[in-house]
């Protein structure tokens, strides 16, 4: 067995093990769950270090994006310990340490996966599709086979995936898998059997997306699918448009309600009530409170207020009363972007946006070059819009894990074949200046 096969096997298992860790965290012990979630990534790192000691061939193969990502991860970790020091109820210090490990290790392990697969042209889309499909199968077996439900958040009567970090993460998982399936449907359109199998998988996922019935996720999926179909998925304007998602939604609730009255959408999304739709199931109240803080209050604007910063600002107590919630420390703002702004501040939110833009540009170029990694272009765009209306991409969530995977490719500098004593010439690879010895 090749060393690459061991690394790839650990990678394929990593998302399912991450999901099992989520279940353990919610059901029994958060600390044990965090350790379990990161175990495959830890194994990849240990394997690499042992292999490195035997080869004694270490090269620094990362660009400046790695430093910015590390800075963002440090900020995310610091927000946890700041919140603990300020007296955030429930989370213990050891839980914060566990979350920090879960934040840092996956990104490093994903870089190592890339190192072992450098000669493989189509490795990442294929491995990712297999790994996420295994996670989906694992959740279906847990829900239908074992009768388990999500320990963090579940809704009776809807499809609840037990091995995810939240109820709505299931809808995002299905959407991401389907974007990969669309890419492979395009690649295999000449092979009827493959098209039939991939198309069937796609339609089953669509059916499960309806059973979860996350309306915003479905609408964003349809929107991204539409711009993908008309060839605008690589438009740079999408990145900037995504930054205004919340103001657009807050000012167009009635228009969205009218659109959802259309026969196809009303039957697809089911819960089309004017009060529910125009307030986005109450999320609009959270977003408005956060917007009011951003424009007027601005306490901790630059460097944040710590994890769950809204609790220290007493920002959403009005929404807690509306929802008959006694405490606000376990609530969140239903928006990754707003969580980062309130908890980590404007400076680190800008760094987060910069990292997303680097990933956006990386896969945009791959898509233009017809590189297999262009398969992730639609996923990056989907995440850009989802992070505005959901915490799917926040901290140690599944969405941030997927983002870390995608960004890990953008930090890699291509390998240089060097032979000492021969002349040196400059070449350009992936727009990074490197030296080639020939």
Describe this structure in words.
- A two-stranded antiparallel ribbon has the order 1-2.
- The chain has one domain (3-56, 62-246, 301-308, 345-412).
- The two termini are 32 Å apart.
- It is an all-alpha fold.
- The longest helix is centred in the first third of the chain and has 25 residues, at 3-27.
- It is built from 21 helices and two strands.
- The radius of gyration is 22 Å and the shape is globular.
Q: What descriptors fit this protein?
A:
disordered C terminus; 21 helices; two-stranded antiparallel sheet; mainly alpha; 438 residues; single chain; 2 strands
Helix and strand layout, with pairings?
Blueprint: H1 3-27, H2 30-37, H3 39-55, H4 64-85, H5 93-116, H6 123-145, H7 169-187, H8 192-212, H9 215-229, H10 237-242, H11 245-251, H12 253-260, H13 263-269, H14 274-278, H15 283-297, H16 309-313, H17 317-322, H18 336-344, H19 346-368, H20 377-389, H21 398-410, E1 424-429, E2 432-437
Antiparallel strand pairs: 1-2
Helix pairs in contact: 1-2, 1-3, 1-5, 1-6, 2-5, 3-5, 4-5, 4-19, 5-21, 6-7, 7-8, 7-9, 7-20, 9-20, 18-19, 19-20, 19-21
């Amino acid at each position: 067995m090749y060393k690459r096969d061991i690394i790839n096997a650990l990678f394929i298992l990593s998302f399912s093990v991450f999901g099992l860790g989520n279940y353990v965290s919610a059901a029994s012990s958060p600390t044990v769950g965090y350790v379990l979630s990161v175990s495959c990534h830890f194994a990849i790192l240990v394997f690499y270090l042992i292999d490195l000691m035997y080869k004694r061939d270490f090269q620094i193969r990362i660009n400046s994006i790695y430093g910015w990502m590390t800075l963002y991860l440090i900020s995310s970790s610091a927000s946890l310990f700041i919140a603990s020091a300020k007296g955030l109820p429930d989370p213990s210090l050891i839980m914060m340490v566990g979350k920090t490990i879960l934040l840092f290790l996956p990104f490093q392990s994903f870089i190592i996966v890339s190192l072992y697969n450098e000669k493989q042209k189509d490795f990442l889309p294929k491995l990712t599709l297999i790994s996420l499909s295994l996670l989906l199968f694992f959740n279906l077996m847990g829900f239908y086979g074992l009768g388990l439900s999500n320990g963090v958040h579940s809704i009776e009567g809807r499809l609840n995936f037990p091995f995810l970090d939240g109820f709505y993460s299931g809808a995002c998982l299905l959407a991401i898998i389907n974007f990969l399936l669309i890419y492979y449907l395009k690649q295999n359109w000449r092979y009827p059997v493959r098209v039939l199998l991939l198309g069937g998988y796609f339609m089953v996922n669509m059916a499960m997306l309806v059973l979860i019935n996350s309306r915003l996720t479905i609408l964003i999926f349809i929107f991204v699918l539409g711009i993908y179909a008309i060839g605008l998925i690589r438009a740079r304007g999408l990145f900037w448009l995504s930054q205004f998602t919340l103001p657009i939604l807050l000012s167009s609730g009635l228009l969205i309600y009218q659109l959802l009255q259309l026969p196809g959408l009303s039957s697809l999304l089911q819960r089309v009530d004017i009060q529910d739709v125009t307030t986005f199931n109450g999320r609009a109240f959270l977003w408005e409170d956060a917007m009011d803080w951003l424009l007027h209050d601005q306490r901790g604007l630059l460097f944040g207020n710590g994890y769950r910063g809204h609790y220290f600002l007493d920002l959403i107590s009005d929404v807690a009363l509306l929802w008959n919630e006694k405490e606000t420390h376990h609530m969140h703002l239903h928006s990754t972007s707003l969580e980062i702004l309130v908890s980590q501040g404007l400076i680190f939110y800008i760094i987060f946006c910069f990292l997303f833009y680097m990933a956006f540009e990386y896969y945009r170029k791959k898509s233009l070059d017809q590189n297999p990694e262009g398969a992730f272009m639609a996923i990056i765009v989907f995440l850009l819009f989802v992070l505005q209306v959901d915490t799917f991409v926040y901290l140690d969530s599944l969405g941030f894990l997927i983002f870390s995977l995608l960004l890990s490719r953008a930090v890699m500098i291509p390998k240089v074949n060097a032979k000492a004593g021969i002349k040196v010439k400059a070449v350009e690879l992936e727009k990074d200046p490197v030296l080639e010895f020939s």
